[in-house]
Amino acid sequence: MKTIQWYVDKDVDNLMSNPQLDEAANLLKKNEVVAFPTETVYGLGANAKSDLAVAKIYEAKGRPSDNPLIVHIAELNQLEELVTFVPEKANLLINRFWPGPLTIILNREPNILSEKVTPGMDTVAIRMPDHPIALELIRKAQLPIAAPSANRSGKPSPTIAEHVLEDLNGQISGVVNGGDTGVGVESTVIDCTQEIPMILRPGGISKEEIENVVGEVFIDPSINEETPSRPKSPGMKYTHYAPDAPVYLVNGTFSFLQDLVNKKQREGLKVGVIATEETKKDYHADVVLACGRRSDLQSVAHSLYETLRTFNSKDVDIIYSETFPLEGIGLAIMNRLEKAAGHRWIHQNQ
Ligand code: TXA
Ligand code: MG
């Protein structure tokens, strides 16, 4: 299959009358899969009502079929058809954060969506992305769009169209190239089917921001365990985001990390370091990449997946990574780094 690439400038082009988005939307209506930018990462979209279309997502990604998909909508009135009921707290979150990087889990209205979107579940995950191209594409398709991140299963999520093509060229009908995404990590997933909502995946909207709107929220205890037990969000149990070389998270001083590098280099290994703009020049290793600025964790989230992907072209044997505070978006950053590292930590004081 030839993968079409449509270049669309979200800031300049008149999206409503954009013929390239029309073409992409028509393919979605014909149950083909099309990748598109959102404010978090690129999504791999398909008609959420069609078994055939949704099966193509799982196939292109090589995704385990027990891992449910997020359904993307562009208008609030699309929500009514998909869920049985919207509880008060979910409404508050929708009013405050949609469109935006918050995915809300609600009880699913039966027989509307393909069963493959929500394998074996009574619930469905829904979000309204805050990206003009995503919104216009969904409006034009006039469908709820199931869309996981547009990477091969296990790889870091794509934040530019080139990443999508790296993984899926020839396997999908097309990709709308709308440039760089913004947030860089995926949406926060929150289960609003219980009286006290529970965060199942940390992401673009922080726990603190959510608590300001609905008061107390739980956080799935498996999220921050070094060896997670049984996460409630099926996708959280799979290894993810991993570069080809093993990643180790280092909890210690700069010179402790540098000593680890020196030791491996003496053993003849090619060593990479995930640093920040502030610390990059201080390390001596084979490849040192700055992942944003430590003083601005949003910038770390923005560059994280690109940094992980870049290591694959550098051919290193082992990667040591700095770590970040578990506050605000730091919780999502550390959750993704933990997965990239397969929960391998090196603590200085042990
Ligand atoms: O930012 C995002 O959310 C991106 C963009 C493309 O919108 N999408 C994304 O989708 O990250 P995906 O499929 O890579 O991750 C969806 C996560 C998985 O961990 C999945 O298990 C969980 O949401 N999920 C989906 N439906 C669920 C449900 N009904 N109950 C619990 N978890 C659910
Ligand atoms: Mg994903």
Structure description:
The protein folds into two domains: 4-224, DHBP synthase (Alpha-Beta Complex), CATH 3.90.870.10; 247-347, Threonylcarbamoyl-AMP synthase, C-terminal domain (Rossmann fold), CATH 3.40.50. The chain is 30% helix and 18% strand. It is built from ten helices and 16 strands. The chain has helices at 19-29, 51-61, 77-82, 88-97, 132-141, 161-168, 207-214, 254-266, 297-314, 330-340, and strands at 4-7, 34-36, 43-47, 70-72, 102-107, 123-127, 145-146, 174-177, 188-191, 198-201, 218-219, 247-251, 271-275, 287-290, 318-321, 345-347. Strands 1-8-2-3-7-4-6-5-9-10-11 form an eleven-stranded mixed beta sheet, with helices on both faces. A five-stranded parallel beta sheet has the order 14-13-15-12-16, with helices on both faces. Magnesium ion is lined by residues 148-149, 157. Magnesium ion binds at residues 148-149, 157.
